Protein 1
Amino acid sequence: MIANTKQQAVLLAIDENKHLEGALLPILHRIQHDLGHIPSEHVIDIAEALNLSRAEVHGVITFYHSFKTEPRGKHVIEVCRAESCQAKGGRAIEAAVKAKLEIDFDQTTDDGEITLEPVYCLGNCACSPAVKIDSQLYGRVTEESVSDLIDSLKAEQH
Amino acid sequence: MTIKVFVPQDSSAISVGADQVAAKIRAKLQTINGIELIRNGSRGLFWLEPMVEVETAEGRVAYGPVTASDVDSLLEQGLLDGAQTHTLSLGLTEEIEFLKKQQRLTFKRAGIIDPTNLDDYKAHGGYKGLERAITMSAQECVDEVKASGLRGRGGAAFPTGIKWQTVLDTPGEKKYIVCNADEGDSGTYADRLQMEADPFGLIEGMTIAAIAVGADKGYIYLREEYPHAHQRLNEAIEKAFDANLLGDDVLGSGHNFDLEVRLGAKSYICGEETALLESLEGKRGEVRAKPPLPAIEGLFGKPTVVNNVLSLSTISIIFEQGAEAYASFGMGRSLGTMPFQLAGNLKRCGLVELAFGVTLNQLLNDFGGGSASDKPLRAVQCGGPLGTYLPESQWDIEMDYEALAGISGVLGHGGVVAFDTTVDMSEQARFSMEFCAEESCGKCTPCRIGATRGVETIDKVRANTDREANLILLTSLCNTMESGSLCAMGGMTPYPVKSALEHFNEDFFLPTVEETSTAEGSLPTAEGSQTIEISIDSIKKAGTSS
């Protein structure tokens, strides 16, 4: 079954996972993956399927950094803020990316293209500093190399 | 004869271009018969990644760090024959000093085998441990773990055998084995490396645990930030099911063991075992009060073994080589080997597996090669974001659980993050509180409120607002968090803060931004009544000269 609507995507995620022990996180992951966020109007569908209250499902969605209640940009840039990257100039990378995109963490550029997020350790500490752009991890980055990567994202859209 | 060329498919190697190197080599070799390109895991020599290896009659030879643009010249200069004339030649891999000086047990297969090739795993000692375990009684299995002296490698260092004994002794139809693969500590990557390089090692260890305590279901709770490990584990699990190494009647032993991977959702606190269990149950990752212990009432209220990736992977080795062989490494109550992970500002960052007792200085200098920048090292954080910052005067410490605890330090999961003299320790202390505020589960007040107040108080100190009173307040707040928090998150966040205050005190007396413009001047001391004539440079240097 291919989901054509948000409703279908949510029902598909529920259907495929509700038999699991502790099914809520797998369901939320699937919806987040397929739709890029968990639509608030469908929280009730999840709650009913798992015999939970809407408050319980909402509580879980808002507890975890992975689950978003609003859609994000087409691309997501994650900059590592943790200690190993700090020791290798991570704070300067953070500042440079913010300045270049003219947004702060957890914001999206006006054109809806790029969302910037902080991340606390990507497990790439031996190749710090690290950033992740969509599903691709980059190590030993510099202000220049990150700037180039952002430019290539922007070039893609035109 | 087939020539084998190895290009790691490790996340870190990929992050610095290993996929491009592999693609280039593959394209080049398409026309040559008898060449096999293997995507191995990493050996853990990360400063050399992407590190390409070629099998020769003398052993594997290495080249690194290789970029895609080096591939042509490497091939021209005889890469396939293992020629060592290229500037990127590193000689025989096993002879590289950083690797040669290690004692690899848990990581003995890392980077050597094709990670999801079951035959390769078995050819390197794999599944010998499980074959032995199924001939033993449950109690004999638990006794073997006790005899090995293995303590939890996740950070808490609780004796693994005792934990297993509790689960074995707790009656129950249903029991679980849960692997904590939520490796959130900054500066640590050993779990990731292990799962990507040798996933069967973890699967075998979990299967042995299941047989030992009578569990029939296992979960690997994996952090979402590790997609490559996820893929590798799922491939290996599928192959293990196909080979009757998982599932019903494992190897004809009569034991059933079902195993699956579950993804976390970016929450540091879910690395705490009870929060992890809540998360696995589909709830908010809030810490549970203990008792009851998870070994008695764990996942869905059932007796549960919760062990770290490294602990469970080491189980395979202990059962293959025997508890005595494992316990012959190490010192005091810290037996076996510890995979230390060098990170931050070091020339050579990578995984160093050694018996407990190596000094921090040896790790930083002999292995790490000292500072990667042109400035000397100043502070080292051991044991993740909740670990203390150690000044140079403490770098002769022997790395074992008790020795570090003796100086209020933390060995934790084995992360070592080095900073040079550009570090501002008041900023690091602030970050520790900020991180706690960001990641606190919110269940207990000292952690939930304390961390936020901690950030505010450090900000006041840094802004020179009522500095003395705020430093006293900060110390008091740290003590409250330490003694009043429900788990290590709030209970240990004060460690880095207090160590920064104790050992790098001068950073908390820096002038504010406006004052910085006149770098030479008189600064108030802690007492406030006296002033000291000092320049900013000399304040920063003071931390390294002790």
Note: The first strand of chain B starts at residue 3 and ends at 6.
Protein 2
Amino acid sequence: MDRRSAMKQLAVLTGGVIMIPSCDFSEEAILQAYQNLNITASQKALLTRVTNTIFPGTTLKRAEEIQLQDFVLVMCNDCLKENQQQSFVLGLKQWDDFTKQNFGQAFSKMDQNEAADAIRETMSLEAAPESDAALLGRFLAITKQFALQGYLSSEYFMKEIKPYELVPARFFGSKKIENA
Amino acid sequence: MANLNIKSKQENTYDAIVIGSGMSGGWAAKELCEKGLKTLVLERGREVKHVQDYPTTNMMPWEFEHRGNIPEAVKKENPVVSRCYAFREDAQHFFVKDTEHPYVQEKPFDWIRGYQTGGKSLLWARQVQRWSDFDFEGPARDGFAVDWPIRYKDIAPWYSHVEKFIGVSGNRDGKPNLPDGEFLPPFELTAGEQYFKDFLRENYPEREIIVARCAHITGNQEFYAKQGRALCQNRTLCQRGCPFGGYFSSNSSTLPWAAKTGNLSMQHHAVVHSIIYDEDKGKATGVRVIDAQTKETTEYYADVIFVNASALNTNLILLNSTSNRFPNGLGNDSGVLGKYVAFHNYRAGISGEYDGLKEFTTEGRRPTSGYFPRFRNVYKQETDFLRGYAAGFSANRSMINDYSGIGDELEKAMTREKYGPWRVGSHMMGETIPKEESQVSLDPNLKDAWGIPQLKISMDYDANDEAMIKDYLEQMTEMFEAAGFTNIRTRDDKRAPGLDIHEMGGARMGKDPKTSVLNEWNQIHSCPNVYVTDGACMTSTSTQNPSLTYMAFAARAVDHAVKNLG
């Protein structure tokens, strides 16, 4: 059985049982900018690693270069319903432990390929809704959704990659496509 | 009236008072000022000056903190306005929040309001289809409400008068149930819409798609330059207020025009409590106003009063204008004031895809869409429900990307787009029947922040509306399938009345004072120096977006008022 299938089975069979959320004994300060999230600077740093894994900057700019982590946090703080907000925050807090236990290495220690695999595999797990695996899946789905929204509507993307026209001053209803 | 502000009566006297500065109030003001009357416009909200008070108008998408989304906390506090399609981060400052002006929903009703200079004319969808005699003759033919006291010929010249000034883009389509007007060049149908239009011509000859007429300037630039307005630049960011004045609003057009005459006075934060009726003179003499901020009461006086406070607020003001002569509200001898309100049925819609026309796409943006004029029960009764529906219709093609991956796969996919299928869609705009039990009234106990009774709203869908939804979905599905559209999905979103933002009636026009509030000139039968020319005057709802008709009524009524002034 390869690792991927084993992971899937494990998650399905055990649900949340093997996952023990780490207790946070540190005194690290809560980031005041996101009052609904109660997260720390190191959790934000972990999120930044996640968004940098989603947008590593090989073809386009890296997520961090356009402060995508800030946008994800603003949206999670302001525009999510409470239960989704909880999924996001709990998931973020458990992500390093989850990856350590399921992929043998904490996410924050992984290189880009390993990190991308961990995200891909977790997002494709078929897990019971109450399981930790499902929770982490929801955390990643929310993060990716806002990261993608933020990227596509970023100044960088809308100026340099796919220019947005504030004033098109035209409309053609039947434009012939060259090489259609 | 403990804190009555007694300024000299003379200082507060005008030739005319207009209550409300929105779509129809702006028109009343323009016409009155042009005819030389010193006119006071009372606006209950804050001042919004054209261009300079459109804070988001030139913002780029990335400049919005939530990229257009409304935060959850705002939604939680304002569930009603949050359901409105245009209540987004870029235009939220032009909407009344639920808490600002509470009302009582005896039945669910989403009351969407804009309290500021220009009212909802800043935010409207700018659709301006004329009504025809198929609409004005509807109640008499089909036996509901009361007969309209006017016919198309009475209002046609006023439609023209309004259209020329506001600027209306459209085609001369030659359809008797959607009369042609004074049109500037039309926007194009898309290739997908043209395909469906051609398909209908072959297969459903009595049904037709046209490009919807909209209040956008697409020609005759010199004429509109006199209003300080320029050609529509296809931004489709209209709800933010247009820096070009490309679409019509009171702010960009009628109010500045009225101001240029020197006859206009505007009072903001002026909440109208009631209209003052003088029993000795047997007419209305003025308006009692509460300052929204200081709560101070002031009275203003005039020979003629136009009520354009928006359909339901006009009802509220008239119901609250009590006197010995009118104990149940101004002009309410008949007891019908507040009754026979109605709306447009926007509950149903349909979407699908079209796989053809691969070699075509669209370019740029268009501030309107295709339009399906009513085809049901036009010439004769042919279904088991009364009246019918118009519908929006659009077919657009967008680029699609595969965003399923992560990492470099995702980054590459974001730069690699391809043409998707044509996406087709339609939403219904159903005529609803005004009924006696559909009504607004004053709550006997609850008051607003200004001590004015809260409005109690009670209207709902009925069996006729349900039958019409069913028919719309059946007919559209049949036509979509026959046209070769795929992935067809129908929806009935069960929305409450109100989100159509086409509430009408309550002070309906009619021939008989025993069954109506207003006469054929929009005058209150029993108090003829008060004119009502907003949505409250409507006897029936038709299927067409009503604003153009309110504006035409306002201009026509001013002409009548001025000709009849002492």
Note: Chain A touches chain B at residues 53-60, 74-75, 78-82, 112, 116, 119-120, 144, 148-155, 157-158, 161, 164, 166-177, 180 (CB under 8 Å).
